[in-house]
């Protein structure tokens, strides 16, 4: 297979696989609670490694089951009231947009989408004006959306949030493991990610960064359990001081240990090196695809990331993906309803996403481009017949 679906799920690095299997073996031999006790060092390394990856402190990290799980835990800690504004972008991730709509339905919040810059990505000056004029309860930005290679200027936006002391939530699901992330530089209060994509960790894992100022400010998730809080008396509880407040008591420890191993692996490979090679492979692919008649490359904005999206004239989405499957090329489809704003702006019904990672090769990029050339041409020939 040519695995070009790293934005879906990266290939498990060997030490990750090994760490997980070893832990499962231990659980089978001595029991789940006892195994967790025996591996306390590896478990606490999840927090240390993740903190090192994003420039935070271990106490600001919570383990989560997915990026969406991390995101909704963060959202649930914000005491929204009717009329509160959530300021976001036209490129925020589908599930985040649905969560905002759900908050609107239940709490009467208002959702404001900052306009895009004509060159792609959010217009930061317009967004800053909205921050000053509307004083949003929350500013929420997806760093790299699932449906294109766009990289939003999260640090520039963060500077405005910090100036105005606004709560700032960044979805870094597609950027963690692909680009260097420094939460101080971004200036965010919350940051969410999965471990299964560019970090090459296991499925069912993710994390939430919660800034110290948010923890000290008393933010806590709506549903907090015996791990996140102490039951201090029949009528009282006290949240713990760290981001563990955002976790539950029960953990898939093998997966958590696997995530720690994945992060250590990425740190050893070097995120700066990854951030040079991975988007460069995507740029090579984009360059080849742009030159294929009938192919429309859809990524916008400066320095796009390793998510390459395009549509192909004359093809329906599922048969096109199936045709790539038969060439043993992994890919993913996005439909109009994945990106109501972005795909409407681009007049796109569907897009195919190819997302290489550093372990892919230039030869693979060329083989994929050749396959797309062949498929696009076959449809043109059929149309002429
Ligand atoms: C930008 C972005 N945010 C969030 C998610 C959701 O991640 P998860 O499936 O881990 O909840 C995805 C998944 O593709 C994504 O691309």
UniProtKB/TrEMBL annotation:
Signal peptide: none
Gene Ontology molecular function: lyase activity
Lyase as UniProt keyword: yes
Domain spans labelled Aminotransferase class V: 6-368
Keyword Lyase appears in the UniProt entry: yes
Key words, A-Z: Lyase
UniProt name for this protein: Selenocysteine lyase/Cysteine desulfurase
Native source species: Actinoplanes regularis
